[in-house]
Each structure stands twice: as C-alpha cells, then as structure tokens.
C-alpha cells in the first residue's frame, strides 16, 4: 500500500479523471476520488460495478467472479471492484451522486484490541486504526486477513466518535476462509489492513420518520450501528427505532443487551426477537441456565416485523441486513406492504 505505481483513469465522454494505484481497484479508487461509481457488494458477486474498458489494460483479482458473464467479457466489460490497472485506462461508466459518500474510503492499518463472543458463532472484533477515519452508521469495510485471498466485507457495529475505534460483529461461516482466519488465527495485538468505509445503507440523519430495522445473523452489526447513530443524534431525539432480530434457535439470539444500553430503551428503542426452529437448541437460550426453553416468538423475522408494525410499516424508514434468503423475504414483504422504495436501505451481500 502506498508504493505501487499510479495510473490515470479517464471516464469516457467526460473530462473526469482520477488516479488509481496498481494495487487498488477502479471502483474503490473512484470512490476515494469522490466519484459516485455504482456498486453494492464490492467483492465481485453482484455485477453492479461493471464498466467497459475502452482503452488500457487491467488485471483481475478474481477472474472467475460471478458478477461478470462471458457475454460481458466479450464486450470488454470488467468489474470495477476486482480490476486493477496495469496502464492508463479509459473506461465507460455511469456515475450518480447517490453513490458518493461524505466519508471517502481509505486504506489503513489496524490493530486488533479486543474480542468477545456474543453467541456460539458470532464474535465482536474491535480494531484500533492507525489514524482515525470517519464513517456513517450502517456502513461496512473490507478486511484483508492473513492467509486469505482477497478482502472480506464486514459491517461496522459502532458509531464514529473520531477515535479510530472500529467494531465488527462477525458470524463464523462453516468452511469460510475469512472467518477461520478471524476466529482461529488472529490474536489480540495482530495487525490487519482495513479499507473503508463503504455502503449505501447508512443512517439518513435528515429523515425524521420512525425507523424499522430487520436483521438476522451478523446483520445485527449495521442495524445496531443505525440505532446507536439515532441515539447519539440530538436532532433525531423524537425518532423511534424498532429492531427485529431473527435466528434459527435460542442460542442465535443476541443484541438486546447492546440496545438496552441506549437511553430511552423501552420508550424509543424496542427489541423484537424471533426464532424459526424452537427445538433446534433447547438448552442454549442466551444469558440463561442450561435447560431453559424459548418462550418468545416463533417464525420468520420479516413476518414478525409485519405483524408488529402492521399498516404503519410504509410510514417508516427501513434498514435491513442478513443472509440472502432473509433479505429476499424482507424485500418481498416490503413490496407487498407498499413501502416506498426510497425508504428502504440495504447493502447486497452474497
């Protein structure tokens, strides 16, 4: 980082240019330069960041990335998030102001200072950045981990206090190289490189609608960041937040303790947990003695959100995060409930 050659990238049909280091990508360098290039997952899966290579040459971090089809390759399209320049380039890309972030992403070294388990497979990792970098509630970052090919995207759970403290709540993925490195090989004091912030599902501070957050798994992190952002903003003192959290069994449920720490819990901040398989882990309810049975709601988290909020759902600002199947179910529910699309915020992960 910092010693690689730098190339000039020109946007075809305009006079816009930006520098991109040989070890950076077309997309991330554009965002660092304040150019609003479209993106979502940032790891090669969704294809939102496709651009056409008009002149020049690039190398791909992931030549087989699913976000790019053979037809795309035949048309000289490349993924902005996976393409590193090896010469000056001219690219054809659509840009839009909504993809610009007021917090431009930076690449920075960070030291792991604390770990704590939230559930049997979700752990909080707290990093201290070498220098503070601003981020918005609900955004994510890319972590480059030892022994892992390519960065991994994880959402921030805290809010920016200007002190370089970045907190992530990460779910262990079976056979996942990234989480294996984090959970099994990364010790307190270890240094990693973090690139961020990214993400478009950040807290809209100028909005005064009440908020519904829907999450499952490590999707808790960004919605907890949203809730913490609301609590810290005096201008949002009248905004209420309902946080719906779903898991398979009782031992998967977490987040209430963190929400309880916010001023106004039970008055402005509300926690609604639900599990889908009540018999899967009968003796593992959080903060309980072995043998405790689940006594809460059973079903799917999107169903609970609709049940609790009812006809008022379209009057809310919606933020959601979680595994793909949950995200698809939430999207379908929100569309059926006639929630305006501009009030729905999520980042697509695969």
Helix and strand topology:
Elements: E1 6-11, E2 17-21, H1 26-32, E3 50-55, E4 58-60, H2 70-74, E5 77-79, E6 83-85, E7 89-92, E8 106-117, E9 122-129, E10 140-144, E11 152-155, E12 165-171, H3 177-185, E13 191-198, E14 211-216, H4 220-232, E15 241-247, H5 256-260, E16 269-275, E17 297-298, H6 301-309, E18 317-321, H7 324-336, E19 344-345
Parallel strand pairs: 1-7, 14-15, 14-18, 15-16, 16-17, 18-19
Antiparallel strand pairs: 1-2, 3-5, 3-7, 4-6, 8-9, 8-13, 9-12, 10-11, 10-13
Short description:
Helix content is 17%, strand content 29%. By secondary structure, it is α/β, with parallel strands linked by helices.
3D structure, described in words:
The protein is α/β, with parallel strands linked by helices and 350 residues long. The chain folds into 3 domains: 6-99, Ubiquitin-like (UB roll) (Roll); 106-198, Translation factors (Elongation Factor Tu (Ef-tu), domain 3); 211-345, Rossmann fold (3-Layer(aba) Sandwich), CATH 3.40.50. It contains 7 helices and 19 strands. A 6-stranded antiparallel beta sheet has the order 11-10-13-8-9-12. Strands 17-16-15-14-18-19 form a 6-stranded parallel beta sheet, with helices on both faces. Strand 10 and strand 11 (152-155) form a beta hairpin. It is globular. It starts with 5 loop residues before the first strand and ends in a 5-residue tail after the last strand. The relative contact order is 0.12. Residues 282-291 have low confidence and may be disordered.
